[in-house]
Amino acid sequence: MTSDVTIIGAGLGGLTLARVLHVHGIPATVYEAEPSPAARSQGGMLDIHDYNGQLALEAADLMKEFRGLVLEGRQAMRILDPDGTVLFEKTDDGTGGRPEVLRGELRQVLLDSLPAGTVRWGHKAGSTRTLGDGRHEVTFADGSTLVTGLLVGADGAWSRVRPLLSTATPEYIGKSVVETYLFEADTRHPAAAKAVGGGSMIAPTPGRELFAHRERDDTLHAYVGLSEPQDWFAAIDFTDAAVATARIAAEFDGWAPELTALITDGDIAPVLRPLYALPAGHRWDRVPGVTLLGDAAHLSAPNGEGANLAMLDGAELGKALAAHPGDIEAALTAYEQAMFSRSAEAATFAGAEAHGSDSDQITAQDLVTAFTRHEQSR
């Protein structure tokens, strides 16, 4: 039985792997750079799909806990023109296969499901090297080291484990998003709250888009998408919230005020988030004793699948290791071949959930057509 599993990264994928291994009686240790579970915000809403993310939670025996996190009504969505006209609207009748939860709450469920001490906080991986015979050494930022017989990189876009397998590095996709929050929206920001509705809202034009969703406690979480090179954003002083807000808002001049309020009325300083992706179809030759999952393996432009795929990667890897006791290489080979195919398919997905994130030319009507086609095919 595998008894020497080291996971770098306590995101959803790494924790799902640790949990599925625990379900099968296989111990693992997770090393996480953050000093504690509450070190930073874990992001916003996630729609957990019945064809990947929920399958992972079933393998982790956490579906009951997951259902307790679901925010009712949040699968509702609408598409707006920049003038505020609602072009498409879908209500949440409770039958959709993509219920919404908060990422931080889902992560906490996974953490709570693991034995005490499974996650070692404050361990930032600095470098890794191969020792031979399927063993690898990890050196942490504090100078400490460990040697392991199975190393799993679940450490995201800038993985320290990936260089053991691949020379690929993420590249900027030509687009960034600026993140804002509006709190107590129904009372303090009623026009924006009405525009967003009960779930999510997107208003796209070529090179510019506004996407927002309603979270718990009457909070609106918005992402302002702009297709521009990185030096364009570098010219904006994001340390000055007022200056940055005004500069970003200027790009949406003429849009309906209830939409631009998602930029101008933010209750936090705007946060710039450049978007990166690994080369399409990224894969590697089998290297004994090491593998990757989630964004470390197949970072792509946002399309609604990233967290779901990371969790499914973790679950499938855990199941493969349980199915091949004493034969790590057979487990890793089976896992990687299925993962390569699964991630390549998701990376080229051009359906309704892409939200225009990988296109500079999408219009609101394009998105309406995509959603309508998607609904008709169900």
UniProtKB/TrEMBL annotation:
GO biological process: response to antibiotic
InterPro entries: FAD-bd, FAD/NAD-bd_sf, TetX_monooxygenase
Broad class of enzyme this protein falls into: oxidoreductase
Catalytic activity annotation: a tetracycline + NADPH + O2 + H(+) = an 11a-hydroxytetracycline + NADP(+) + H2O
Main location per the UniProt record: cytoplasm
UniProt keyword list: Cytoplasm, FAD, Flavoprotein, Monooxygenase, NADP, Nucleotide-binding, Oxidoreductase
SUPFAM superfamilies xref list: FAD/NAD(P)-binding domain (SSF51905)
Keyword Nucleotide-binding included in the entry's annotation: yes
Origin species: Streptomyces fodineus
Oligomer status and interactors: Monomer.
Summary of the function given for this chain in its UniProt record: An FAD-requiring monooxygenase active on some tetracycline antibiotic derivatives, which leads to their inactivation. Hydroxylates carbon 11a of tetracycline and some analogs.
Documented EC number(s): 1.14.13.-
GO-annotated cellular components: cytoplasm
Residues the record lists as binding NADPH: 40
Subcellular compartments: Cytoplasm
Cofactor: FAD
Name by which UniProt lists this protein: Flavin-dependent monooxygenase
FAD-binding domain sequence ranges: 3-46, 289-335
Coiled coil: none
